[in-house]
Amino acid sequence: MQKTVVLGVIGADCHAVGNKILERALSEAGFNVVNIGVMCSQEEFINATIETNADAILVSSLYGHGEIDCRGLREKCDEAGLKNILLYIGGNLVVGKQDWSDVEKRFKGMGFNRVYPPGTSPEIGIRDLKRDLGIED
């Protein structure tokens, strides 16, 4: 059975190129991708996930405000009945240079299952997604 993922860029971030690259890579890997585009609110991610019965939410953020934009997302997912939804995020998530291990720890503390630094190849996320969803290659 094909797995569905909701993909989008959160907040006021309008970086569309990476979003399109991820959409294509995920589709070619066999996922049904619901791309909600750029400048998306937390509620748009949640509503798309509920409407499509998606298996994971993939959040992208490149403009450094990911921490602000994502604060409370896990709690909102839980409240919407998405307690077990996989929640991934990647990109340039914070302003300035910060130690990546601190950034990753902070986002995992916010309820994200996987956190990826800038420059992570789509194949790494796809590999993790397949593993987390129990999909065998």
TrEMBL record:
> Entry's SUPFAM superfamilies?
Cobalamin (vitamin B12)-binding domain
Instruction: Give the signal peptide as a residue range, or say none if absent.
Output: none
Pfam families documented for this protein = B12-binding (PF02310)
Q: Write out the catalysed reaction.
A: (2S,3S)-3-methyl-L-aspartate = L-glutamate
B12-binding domain ranges (all copies): 2-137
- Per the record, the domain of life is Bacteria
Keywords, alphabetical: Cobalamin, Cobalt, Isomerase, Metal-binding
Q: EC number(s) per UniProt?
A: 5.4.99.1
Q: Does the keyword Cell cycle apply?
A: no
Q: How does it assemble?
A: Heterotetramer composed of 2 epsilon subunits (GlmE) and 2 sigma subunits (GlmS). GlmE exists as a homodimer and GlmS as a monomer.
Q: What is this protein called?
A: Glutamate mutase sigma subunit
Name the species this protein comes from.
Answer: Thermovenabulum gondwanense
Gene encoding the protein: glmS_1
